[in-house]
Each structure stands twice: as structure tokens, then as C-alpha cells.
Specification:
The structure holds two protein chains of two kinds. Chain A is mostly helical. Chain A contains twelve helices and two strands. The longest helix of chain A is centred in the first third of the chain and has 29 residues, at 7-35. By secondary structure, chain B is an all-alpha fold. Chain B folds into two domains: 1-30; 34-105, no CATH class. Chain B is built from five helices and no strands. In chain B, helix 4 (65-80) packs antiparallel against helix 5. The radius of gyration of chain B is 20 Å and the shape is flat. Chain B starts with a helix and ends with a helix. The chains are: A mainly alpha, B mainly alpha.
């Protein structure tokens, strides 16, 4: 494998992610404000967390002053996927990536940045890694700030339509995998069914959102890991093996 | 607990946990995971999390539920046809917007 250490390629690969992040972050900023946070709180959460799913789960909890334990559990379960991505990423780092560089790279390991850098089929140099993260980071934090400040100015028709963007991103990540792998299809279908049950069944609908995510994720991931283990290949490495 | 103190605690905790989850494997794991159960568990996690977070939220995020349903359908269709993340986002936002505009006109 060749080593990619070009900062120009990094900025180029980061630009579309940055544009997408700006749009999504705008809705996250507006979502934060409508949940009850102020613009500074919204901005700080985005600037320091840099994660869509974790923040969307955390914001309503923080806004109502919810339990810190529930908040911690939510973050650990929702963000546990990053552990796998970081493990995968660690296999691809070039020799010029020093130990102290890893402290910085770890902060920017989002789903989309991970998907792009690991789809590259190359060893990743520090210049490439440090440049690909710039536009996504700026887009995410400044987009949140803009959404928090200006979201209320837009007509509700437009903000409602924009609000679907973040969920569209989740669906766009799920669907291709569910299409390829029957167990994943089933797992996604059961997850959605469980989500609807916790939203509408009277006995279940008072369970806090964070707890729902934790419980459904741990239960279904365990069940599927047992009945349909991933053994043929490491799914995160498909691009590398192709 | 005062509101600013609660917020700072919550902020440090979410940011700190998210960072540690990303950092620790990068620092300590140099070899590939061999444990099949752990590998499989970690494989399913993102799909369950994202499914639970996307539904039914996408249907309820718009003014009218029909707009949310249209957005979800368009997004699933585009993603199934292997369109990129940005195309899926633009497609579903457009679908929701068109639906809301129709409601506005009728």
C-alpha cells in the first residue's frame, strides 16, 4: 500500500464532508435552541464533541437537566462504535504519525471522516490526516453556531424540512449495509420496530430516550452477535480487501 | 446544583467520554481484534443506534407527518440506489419541503 501524506488531497477529501456537516450542524444548532439550550451551550457541545448521534441524544437530556448517569450511559453506548473505528484506523497510520499525533487524530475520528480515510486503500500520513479534518471541524462547529443563532429566523416550514437532514444522514449510513447483509437488514428492522414500540406503547413510552437507545442497542447487538456473528471478514475493512 | 455547574459537568462528561472512546483504542490497540463476539457486537452497534435514532424521529420532525414520511422514503430509495450522503440529504430535505409547500397551497 502506498502512503498518502498530501495535505492538498486531505483538504480536497475534507471539503464535501465539511459542506455536508455545515448543513447538518445548522439543524443541530437549531435543535439545541428549541430543546432549551442557549447558543453558547449549543456551540460548545458541537465544538468539543464532534459527533452527530451522541449529541442528538445528549442535547435533550442536558436541556432538561437530566440524570448525568443516563447521559454517561448514552454516550458510552452510542459512541462505542468509535472504538472499533479507532482500532481499524490504528492499523492504517503511517510511520510519521507520532504518539502525540494520535491524541489529536482521535478527536476528529467521526463516522464520515473514518469512512473516507479508510476507503482510500492507502497508509495514512500525518499531513493528510491533519488536513482532511479541517473543513469538517469548521463546518460542524460554525454550522451549529449559525443554526443556534439564525434557526429561529427561518420559517418553521424550512426548519422542519432541514430537520430531516440529520436523520437522512443516519438512514444513508444504514441502508447500504442493510441492503448487502440479511442479518443487518433484520437487525435494522427489529431496531426500528423497537423504537416505535418505545415511542407509542403506553407501558413503554415513558422510558427516557437515552435509556431506550442503550437498552435496545445492547440487547439487539448481543443477540445478533450471537446468532449472526461477523466472521467471514471484518466489515470495516471491505474496501481494503477489495 | 446550579444550571451553569450542571452544564459544565455535562459538557466535560460528554466530550471527555466521546474523546476517550476514540483515543484509547488508537493508543493501545496495535493488533487486530480476534474475538468474534466482540467484533460482531461492535459491527451491529452503529446500525441499531442509528435506526433507533432515525425512527420515528424523522416522521415527527416536520410540521406534517406526510412530509416526514416522504423524506424517509426518498432517503431510503436514494441510499438503496447507492447515492452519496449529500445526495440523500438534499433529496429528503427537498421531498419534505415539497410536501410542506403542497400543504400550504391546499
Amino acid at each position: 500500500m502506498w502512503e498518502n501524506n498530501s495535505s492538498r488531497m486531505g483538504f480536497r477529501d475534507g471539503l464535501p464532508i465539511g459542506i455536508g456537516y455545515t448543513a447538518i450542524a445548522f439543524t443541530v444548532g437549531f435543535f439545541s435552541v428549541t430543546s432549551g439550550l442557549n447558543w453558547l451551550e449549543a456551540f460548545l457541545i458541537s465544538a468539543l464533541n464532534l459527533t452527530s448521534a451522541g449529541q442528538i441524544a445528549a442535547i435533550p437530556i442536558i436541556a432538561v437537566g437530566g440524570s448525568l448517569l443516563e447521559l454517561a450511559l448514552t454516550q458510552i453506548v452510542i459512541n462505542s462504535r468509535y472504538a472499533l473505528m479507532s482500532i481499524s484506523l490504528s492499523q492504517r497510520l503511517g510511520e510519521n504519525v507520532r504518539l502525540r499525533d494520535r491524541f489529536l487524530i482521535a478527536f476528529f475520528n467521526t463516522d464520515e471522516i473514518f469512512a473516507v480515510v479508510c476507503g482510500k486503500n492507502s497508509i495514512l500520513g500525518r499531513k493528510y490526516l491533519f488536513s482532511i479534518v479541517v473543513f469538517p471541524y469548521l463546518g460542524w462547529s460554525l454550522g451549529t453556531l449559525l443554526g443556534a443563532l439564525l434557526g429561529g429566523v427561518l420559517p418553521s416550514l424550512l426548519t422542519g424540512a432541514l430537520a430531516v437532514a440529520i436523520y437522512a444522514m443516519f438512514i444513508a449510513i444504514i441502508t447500504p449495509a442493510a441492503r448487502e447483509h440479511l442479518a443487518t437488514t433484520l437487525c435494522v428492522a427489529l431496531s426500528i420496530a423497537a423504537a416505535f414500540a418505545f415511542a407509542y406503547v403506553p407501558a413503554l413510552k415513558n422510558v427516557p430516550d437515552g435509556i431506550v437507545i442503550v437498552v435496545v442497542t445492547v440487547v439487539l447487538s448481543t443477540v445478533f452477535a450471537l446468532i449472526a456473528p461477523i466472521s467471514e471478514h471484518d466489515p470495516w475493512e471491505e474496501e481494503e480487501e477489495a | 446544583m446550579s444550571r451553569p455547574l450542571y452544564f459544565i459537568l455535562a459538557l466535560v462528561m460528554t466530550a471527555g467520554l466521546t474523546y476517550l472512546i476514540r483515543l484509547l483504542p488508537l493508543l493501545f490497540v496495535r493488533r487486530r481484534i480476534k474475538n468474534e463476539f466482540l467484533k460482531s457486537f461492535l459491527y451491529y452497534v452503529p446500525y441499531v443506534v442509528l435506526s433507533v435514532m432515525a425512527f420515528p424521529a424523522i416522521l415527527l420532525s416536520t410540521e406534517h407527518i406526510a412530509a416526514g414520511i416522504a423524506a424517509a422514503l426518498v432517503c431510503v430509495f436514494l441510499a438503496y440506489m447507492r447515492r452519496g450522503l449529500i445526495t440523500c440529504m438534499i433529496g429528503s430535505v427537498t421531498a419534505a419541503l415539497i410536501c410542506e409547500l403542497i400543504y400550504l397551497l391546499i
